[in-house]
Each structure stands twice: as structure tokens, then as C-alpha cells.
Amino acid sequence: MLFSIWTMALIAATPVVEVEEIVATCESPNNGAGPLWCYGATLIVRDGDRVYASAMETGKDVPPLCNTRWRLFGRSDDGAWELLAQPDGFRHREPCPLARIGDGRLVLSVNPSTQPVGTQYGECDPHLLAFEVGSWNANTLRPPWSGSPKYTDHSYRGFAANGDTGELLAVNIDSPSGDQYWSYRNGAGEWAGKGSVAFPIRSCYPQVAVSNGSGHIMAIGDIVEPVKEWQAFKFEKSGRQWDYVFRRLFYSYSPNMSATPFSEPLEIDNVDDTSGHIRNLGMWLGGDGAAHLLYTKQSVQSAAMRDKFFPDTPLTNSLEYVVVKDGAIIEHRTLTKGGEGESGESVGMARFHATADGELHVVYYANGRNALMRVRDGAITELPLKQAFSTFFTAAERGGSKPSNTLDLFGVTNRGDTLQYARIRL
Questions:
Q1: pLDDT above 70 coverage of the chain, percent
Q2: Helix or strand or coil: residue 4?
Q3: Which residues have CB under 8 Å from 188's CB, separation 6+?
Q4: 303: phi then psi, degrees, rounded to nearest 5
Q5: In this structure, what CATH number is given to the domain that contains residue 218?
């Protein structure tokens, strides 16, 4: 059978879903976190033909807050997900981010409680576990920290690796001040830099990246609703005392963490005036040192808030793309925008993915499906999954994975307690 060159190009460009399978299940820990709570740092990595995932497990009858443990899984050649390592006790509140460094090791960011079981907001011991692939023996890596920060079960930590150089960057929030403390390990295995970043307001869920000594942090403001009138109205509607808002997005970087502190934070976006909502979703470093940032922006936090306080403001949701270089924004584009008066899509979740040729894409969830958008020109291709991932991680470069024509997804579909995996050939 003969095909034209154009037909063959279309076939080659169509994503092929090769695998859809369950990795593990996780019951809700009822501790304010959950199996995908660390959405700023990835839980899945690819190392050549092998894929690994970090999956939370809730301890039966273990009281919160620290009532979970990490589990390290690997996918075998026959498609089975094998449990490779786990701790004995349930001493964590949050999931544990995973990274790959190019010397045959996987590194897990852990934050076990040092306090009696059932302690809430107690002190923890953040450190790293470096696993030798194959033997699964782990060495403890202890980042040195600047000053005397207090770390608790609410770590809001970021973690990144460079898979080519072996560099590591660990970030953790100081509970009293809300500052993010960082520690950098270079490719020679030396802890070569440390310090802290004081954002204008407490900022959490950081995306972190490291490359040849440079470090990058994007974090979202996370504070109690500061406008008393808005706070009272939302409590009247929901009856919920907990009311944190996410409306200001920041970025900070250091060109050389061995010698230079992180920069004064740059405000990327702000929806304070209309009680909006921002969710930081991705960071990718270009070869020119620029940081590419990805986030969603909702004009007003809810329809009820809009109707009460901003009746003339359309309720919209957009996917935003920003490029920052040398501390300045050099590009800002809206990739798609949905909602009232808009023709695009309202995106719920999105991640960056670069293919082997360096082409940058965004994989996203909208309208009950997953799709792939090419950043360069906005071309969209639907991913033909049987079950769409509503929340997910990709095997990202800032977790040590390489650019690839294979797209790995790890997250949840229509069952929130089931952690699933999909492999898609692009």
C-alpha cells in the first residue's frame, strides 16, 4: 500500500498511546495534603527505558498530620509496577518528590517528622535519599541550610535536579517567617551554596530548576484572604474558616548559586484587584538561560464573588506563558482563554514537555480531555487516552529526565484515590 509523503507526515505526527495502567492507590490522609499535593515538584522520572514514580501511602489508623509514607516504584519490562523501597513507619504529611541524576542514581526529597505520632505542625527533618539503581540501597544527603530555619510538616518544598550534570537544588519553607531557604549541591557532589529568598508575601508550591550553577524558583503567594469584606462573604457562602488565596506570582533566580544570592523576587502576575486566582504549573529552562513559565489565571475566584463584587467583570480562565531572562520578562503570551465572551479553552492542569529535537510543548487538561499544544505556533493535538488525566505530572527535565519523544504522565483520572500512568509516543 502506497502513502503520500503528506499522509506519512500526518501518521508520524499522531500521538500513540502505548500504555495506560494503575501504579498504586492512596486513600485520603485527611491531613490537608494528598498524593499530588507537591504539584510544584515532579513525582515521576524517566531514566532511559525505565520509568520510576514516587507514590504516597496512608497509614491505617495512624493519626494525622504525619500519617503517610513514600513508596518508590519502578516499571519492569513486562509492564508490572514493582515496589522498590519504602520506609517502615508513616512519618510524612506530604508526597515526596523524585529526581534523577546521571550517575545511575535516583534522589528522593523526604521530610519525616521528628515528633511523636499524632503531632500537628511539629518539626521535621528535610533531607535527600540517593538510591543506587538496581540495588536500591540509599545514602542520606543532608543539605546545609543558612541560619537556623524551622521546618515543619508543612514544608512547601521544591526540589530539582540536572540529569546531565548531577546538580541538585533543595528548597524548603521556614515556618515562622515564610521565607524559602535553599541549598545547592554541584555536579562534583559538593554543597556549594545556600541562602534564602524573602518573597513579598508568603509564597509556596515552588517550581524549581537548576542548570550549570544557576537556580530558578517560581512560587505563588499563599496567604489568608486579606480583604475582610471578601473574607466575610466567602465564609457566609461556604461556612469554612480556611480561606487562603493565590493571587500573586513571583520568580527569583541566581546566575551562580556558589557565589551569588537569589535576586529580589520579580512579580510575574497579580489578580489582587478582582479577587482572582493563579496556579503556577511549569518551568522549563532554555539553552540561552531563559526561564519559561506556565500558569493559569482566573479573573475572579468564583462566580459568587464576581456576582457580588465585580458584576461587570467577565469570568474567564486563561493559560499564560512567560519567558524571563536575566531577571526581566521578555515575552508574555496567553496560550488559550476560555469563559465568558472567550472562544478558547478553560484549562485545569498543564505541564511543559520538550521533545528530543528541543521543541517545547504544553500538555494540558480541559473539557474532559488531554491535549498537546506546540508553544511555537499554538498547534493542538488531542491525546487519545481512554481516561483523561485531570491532575498529573510529567517526567520533566527539571526532575532530571531528558527531552524525549515519549510523554510520561502520572496522576489521577476519574478516581482520585488511584494513581495512574500513561506512556504516549509523540
A1: 97
A2: coil
A3: none
A4: -65, -35
A5: 2.130.10.10
Model pTM score? 0.95
Strands (E), 277-426: 277-285, 291-298, 316-325, 328-339, 349-354, 360-366, 369-374, 380-382, 391-394, 406-412, 418-425
Residue 5 belongs to a domain: no
Q: Is residue 43 part of a domain?
A: yes
Q: How far apart (Å, rounded) are the C-alpha atoms in residues 278 and 251?
A: 14
SS3 assignment, position 304 = helix
For the record, the C-alpha cell of 355 comes out as: 521533545
- Side-chain half-sphere CA neighbours of 69 within 13 A: 14
pLDDT digits (tens, 9 = 90+) for 165-219: 999 999 999 999 999 999 999 999 999 999 999 999 999 999 999 999 999 999 9
Residue 1 lies in a domain: no
Please give the residue range of the domain that contains residue 74: 15-425
Report which DSSP code applies to 311.
T
> Does residue 2 lie within any of the structural domains?
no
The tally of domains found in the chain comes to 1
